[in-house]
């Protein structure tokens, strides 16, 4: 339940936080009292307050990742009460506010749970697997020469809009954390589609989708079972339609590859 946003009364909550000293260490939940909180502070600011108190006591602060704190970068990826990024739709962890909870609530905070995202410390996970998928083929490397006039290559507005929707993916990994199979297909679908919808992405279209899907499978991400938890947890609300678009591209690319004569050496 979301607390009354008009309330200015300070609240106190208990944070049940996952603590893990290193990637090879066993972890456990530890409770911390967070008292007299301004309801308008963000979730990350609340963690800052708790860490300040821990440091004053000479205790190890809670390790968590953050950067822009403006819902742009996706670095602040937390699972809050069982939901990646928290209780609301279309926002990142840093945009979740204390007023989203009630006085006396126990809030469970943990890292993403997925084999390809190993926990490094406390709430920080290593999401380099997404970088590896992107590097496998998610860029345009064909030389296009000097920039042409903006109107020289007409692009249907529908395609341009869809490409921008796909490019809105910030690679936070919430889709993987929300999926029971730890599937990365929403992320890969978005990164494939943002180029396949545009003229610049056509020369490497087949190579890109084959390489990125192969890397995704190699890294141990699971398969999609079309339950769409991924899209529901996505802070940018990326549509699962991009998964279907990627599947079509992958099947077409696989078929064309099977027709290509193999060179004999």
Describe the structure.
The protein is of the alpha+beta class and 265 residues long. It has 2 domains: 11-121, Ubiquitin-like (UB roll); 128-259, Orthogonal Bundle (Fumarate Reductase Iron-sulfur Protein, Chain B, domain 2), CATH 1.10.1060. The protein is 33% helix and 12% strand. It has 8 helices and 7 strands. The strands form 2 sheets. A 5-stranded mixed sheet has the order 2-1-5-3-4. A two-stranded antiparallel ribbon has the order 6-7. Helix 3 (157-167) runs antiparallel to helix 5, helix 5 (185-196) runs antiparallel to helix 6 (205-218) and helix 6 (205-218) packs across helix 8 (241-259). The longest helix has 19 residues, at 241-259. It is elongated and about 65 Å long. The model has no long low-confidence stretch (mean pLDDT 93).
Q: How do the strands of the widest beta sheet line up side by side?
A: 2-1-5-3-4
CATH level-4 homologous superfamily of the largest domain: Alpha-helical ferredoxin
Helix proportion of residues, in percent?
25-40%
Poorly predicted regions: none
The number of helices is 8
Distance from first to last alpha carbon:
66 Å
Q: What CATH architecture of the largest domain would you give?
A: Orthogonal Bundle
Structural class: alpha+beta
CATH-derived topology of the largest domain: Fumarate Reductase Iron-sulfur Protein, Chain B, domain 2
Main sheet specs: 5 strands, mixed
Family: Belongs to the succinate dehydrogenase/fumarate reductase iron-sulfur protein family.
Pfam families: Fer2_3, Fer4_8
Domain 4Fe-4S ferredoxin-type: 160-190
Cofactor: [2Fe-2S] cluster; [3Fe-4S] cluster
């Amino acid at each position: 339940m979301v607390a009354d946003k008009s309330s200015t009364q300070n609240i106190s909550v208990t944070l049940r936080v996952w603590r893990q000293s290193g990637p090879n260490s066993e972890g456990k939940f530890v409770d911390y009292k967070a008292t007299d909180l301004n309801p308008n502070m963000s979730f990350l600011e609340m963690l800052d307050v708790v860490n300040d108190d821990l440091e004053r006591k000479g205790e190890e602060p809670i390790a968590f990742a953050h950067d822009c704190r403006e819902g742009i970068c996706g670095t602040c990826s937390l699972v809050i009460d069982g939901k990646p990024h928290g209780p609301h739709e279309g926002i990142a962890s840093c945009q979740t506010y204390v007023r989203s909870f009630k006085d006396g609530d126990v809030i469970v905070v943990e890292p993403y749970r997925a084999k390809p995202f190993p926990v490094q410390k406390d709430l920080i996970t290593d999401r380099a697997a997404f970088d590896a998928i992107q590097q496998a083929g998610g860029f345009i490397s064909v030389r296009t020469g000097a920039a042409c006039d903006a109107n020289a290559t007409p692009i249907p507005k529908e395609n341009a809009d869809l490409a921008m929707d796909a490019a809105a993916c910030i690679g936070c990994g919430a889709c993987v954390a929300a999926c029971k199979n730890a599937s990365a297909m929403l992320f890969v679908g978005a990164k494939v589609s943002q180029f396949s919808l545009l003229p610049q992405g056509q020369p490497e279209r087949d190579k890109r989708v084959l390489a990125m899907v192969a890397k995704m499978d190699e890294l141990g991400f699971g398969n999609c079972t079309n339950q769409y938890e991924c899209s529901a947890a996505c802070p940018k609300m990326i549509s699962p339609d991009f998964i279907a678009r990627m599947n079509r591209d992958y099947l077409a690319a696989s078929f064309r590859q099977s027709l290509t004569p193999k060179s004999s050496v």
